[in-house]
Design a protein that fits this description.
- The structure is a single chain.
- The chain has 228 residues and is α+β, with helices and mostly antiparallel strands.
- Helix content is 40%, strand content 24%.
- The protein is built from seven helices and twelve strands.
- The strands form three sheets. A four-stranded antiparallel β-sheet has the order 1-8-3-6.
- It is globular and about 55 Å long.
- 29% of the residues are buried.
Length: 228
């Protein structure tokens, strides 16, 4: 089986071919349709997950049932890694937002491999460090009282990870609704629509209901840099 694709996962990118072959032997692959649930918050944690293809959103539900999107993950990104060295339940729910293939390595299997391959442990620490930085930025963004700042940072984060250059600007190449942007920014759909309208008038954004195109990144950052 071809396992070179594992190099697209940051945790595995520096491993020698023989080590990749060992990892490949303990991987379980599962396929999901759009809107299928990968796992639910509170379920017993099965192991370390990564996205082989497609995209997944990580969400938490508030006490009143509202959905807050913590992250949107694409190919090569990992999730549920918080359970790697701890037996526990999933802290959030994962849902496929498009057709996806997810790789899973059970905790016991991955821990066994890590013991004999220290480089893998270093890679995992590196990835966890980047995730911690993302969470810190996310918490700081949610602390803003200004909806413009929260939405602008959400758009910049999406553009950094999924932006594709077009003749109109930097298009966020992920299927995301206004409600999902609101869920990520910790605000309401109505507020997102209003802010998007103003950003369009300011010639910072372009696009339609399902497309987001950033035509002025410097202008986008000004919505939150003045608040910092």
């Amino acid at each position: 089986m071809d396992f070179e694709y594992l190099r697209n996962v940051p945790v595995f990118e520096d491993l020698a071919p023989e080590n990749l072959a060992i990892i490949n032997q303990v991987i379980i692959e599962r396929k999901y349709k759009k809107n299928d649930t990968v796992f639910c918050e509170g379920e017993p944690g099965a192991g370390f997950h990564y996205v082989k293809s497609g995209k997944v959103k990580i969400v938490k539900l508030s006490a009143d049932g509202r959905e807050h999107i913590i992250n949107i993950l694409g190919p090569g990104e990992v999730f549920a890694e918080v359970l790697l060295f701890n037996q526990g339940t999933y802290p959030a729910t994962a849902v496929a937002i498009e057709k996806a293939c997810i790789g899973i390595i059970k905790n016991s299997e991955l821990e066994r491999v890590i013991i004999s391959h220290p480089q893998l442990a270093l890679n995992i620490i590196r990835v966890l460090s980047r995730k911690l930085q993302y969470v810190q930025v996310k918490v700081k963004s949610l602390a803003f009282s200004d909806s413009y700042a929260k939405i602008a940072q959400t758009l910049e984060s999406l553009a950094q990870r999924y932006g594709q250059a077009t003749d109109r600007g930097l298009e966020v190449a992920v299927d995301i609704t206004r409600q999902e942007v609101a869920n990520m920014a910790g605000t309401t759909r109505e507020t997102v629509s209003r802010v998007f309208g103003i950003m369009k008038k300011d010639r910072v954004l372009d696009g339609d209901e399902r497309r987001i195109i950033i035509i002025d990144m410097v202008g986008l950052r000004q919505y939150y840099e003045d608040k910092m």
